[in-house]
Write a structure and sequence with these properties.
about 180 residues, single chain, mainly alpha, about 75% helix
Length: about 180
């Protein structure tokens, strides 16, 4: 059975069609969310949330519309991640610890840690879309196109989010890094 037939069957409530769609898209969604959030447990939870929303809302998917089913599924996954960011700002923005090279002095390590903490704290106050774009660009070092694919948007949108987020971060952090 082709994808369109599976979608139409799933929209009619056929469990086997749902199972086939979930089996096919599970690895795709799971990898997408893991790449975005960097946490295996969280990615499993958000992947399940994605498929729960897919099952509940599949009748809303327009089989004759412009968007492909895969784009629709990834949009659900992206929205699950963004919802999570909004609900758990503090958890998301604690981010991973930064590696400190043994080549730096203790003073450098302390200053780096303070700087990192200040940046991460400031990052918490950005809109989730800007914070996620900055995180993916600078912490995970993805290209604009890779980030755009994850969020199903244009690279110029990602560039704008990063630019606007960095402008806000600079304003928040200006003069606060080193107090003496």
């Amino acid at each position: 059975m082709d994808e369109l037939s599976l979608i139409v069957s799933a929209q009619k409530g056929e469990k086997e069609a749902f199972q086939s769609l979930i089996t096919f898209y599970y690895p795709y969604v799971s990898k997408f969310i893991l790449k975005v959030c960097g946490d295996v447990t969280l990615s499993e939870d958000l992947t399940q949330d994605t498929f729960l929303k897919l099952v509940r809302g599949i009748e809303k998917f327009d089989v004759h519309g412009k968007a492909s089913f895969s784009t629709w599924v990834i949009t659900i996954a992206k929205n699950c991640y963004l919802d999570h960011l909004r609900r758990n700002k503090r958890e998301v923005l604690s981010l991973e610890e930064q590696d400190v090279s043994s080549l730096f002095s203790v003073q450098d390590v302390v200053l780096d840690r303070l700087l990192t903490d200040e940046i991460l704290k400031a990052l918490e106050s950005l809109p989730p879309e800007q914070a996620a774009a900055i995180r993916l660009k600078y912490l995970e070092q993805l290209t604009l196109q890779e980030i755009a694919r994850r969020f199903s948007c244009e690279p110029k949108t990602v560039k704008s989010r990063i630019h606007n987020g960095m402008v806000r971060l600079r304003k928040m952090l200006r003069g606060d890094f080193y107090h003496g």
